[in-house]
Amino acid sequence: MKNNQIYLIVLAALFALTSCKNSTQTKEKTPAIWTEEQAQNWQTENEWLRGCNFNPSTAINQLENWQAETFDPETIDRELGWAKNIGMNCMRVYLHHVAWQQDKQGFKGRINKYLDIADSYGIKTIFVFFDDCWNAEYHAGKQPDPKPGVHNSGWVRDPGDLLFQDSTLVTTLESYVKDVLSTFKDDSRIVLWDLYNEPGNSGYKNKSMPLLKKVFEWGWEVRPSQPLTAGVWSAPLTDLNKFQLENSDIITYHNYEGPEQHQAAIDTLKSYGRPLVCTEYMARRNNSLFSNIMPILKKENIGAINWGLVAGKSNTKYAWDEPIPDGSEPPLWFHEIFRPDGTPYIQEEVELIKSLTGE
C-alpha cells in the first residue's frame, strides 16, 4: 500500500512536472497578440499619427544613419524641427543589425539620442527592424556614394541574401531584436515596432516567411508595452499577408495608389477591427498625393506616414524606375517635402499639410 502510494505520488509529481514543462513550451509558442480592446486603447492614447519615413538627408542608407562615424544629430535635429513646424508627430525610422553588431552599446546610445531629439519636438517614433527592399549586400564602414539620379541607390536590405547563405545568422538576428526590444520595451517615445518591412519583396516571396514568423516570436517573448506589426504591401503575397494581418497588434499597410484604390484597401482592412496606420504613401507620379490621400486618412483616423521628408543622399525624389543618369532635377519629385535648405518643394502642399494637422 505504501509502495503504491509512493508510486502514485511520484507519478503525480512527474505528471505535474511534465504538464508544467509542456505548459511553458506552449506558452513560448503561443502568440502574445494584443486584444482588440488593447489596440483601441492605444489608438485613443495616441490620437491621429502623421509623419514621414525619416532618413536624414546626409545618410544614403540605414548604416550611414546609425554608424558612429556618420551619425548626424545636428541634421536630425534641424530636419525634425521642420517636420514639427508643419504638424508632424511621428517618424518611421529603419534600423540595421550590422550597426548593432559592430557596436551594441554605442548603437543603442545613438537610438536614445535620436529619441531625445524627436521627443523634444513632440515626435514619436516607429522603428523598423528587417527589410527586403533594394540592395542585397551590405557592409560596415564607409557606405557608397549615391548614383546620380537613381532612387535609393545605396539602400540595403536586412538581412538580405546573407540569411540564405549563413545558417548561423539567425542567432545574431535573434539577439539583435531581443536586445533592442528589451532595452526600449517601455519607452514612451516609441509608438510602434515595425518588425519587417515588405517581407517577400525583391523576389523572395514565401522565402521570407520563416524570418517573419521568427521575428514575431522574438517580439512576443519580450512583449514590449508598444504594439508589434508588419505591414501588408502586395496583394498577391497571400500567405505572408494572412500571417501579418492575423498576428499584428495594429494593422499597418503601404499604398502608393490613387484615392479610389486606397479607399478600397482601407475598407478591406477595416474588417480586422483594429486601428490602421498607413506606413508608406505619397508618390506624386502615381496620383498618391497629400491633397487626395491625407484628408482620407485623417477622416478615417488612420495614421498617415508618407515616404520622405527632406531630399538628400537617398535620391528618393527620383521615381523607382525612372533614373536620370545626369542627376538633374526630375520634372516631378516622386517623394519628399523639403529641399535640403528647408524650403518646401511645393508651398501649397505644406500649407495643406498644416491645415490638416492644425499648425
From TrEMBL:
Key word Signal present in the record? yes
What is this protein's name? Uncharacterized protein
Asked if Signal is a keyword of the record, the answer is: yes
Q: Which residues form the signal peptide?
A: 1-23
The UniProt keywords, alphabetically, are: Signal
Spell out the InterPro entries in the cross-references. GH
What species is this protein from? Answer: Mariniphaga anaerophila
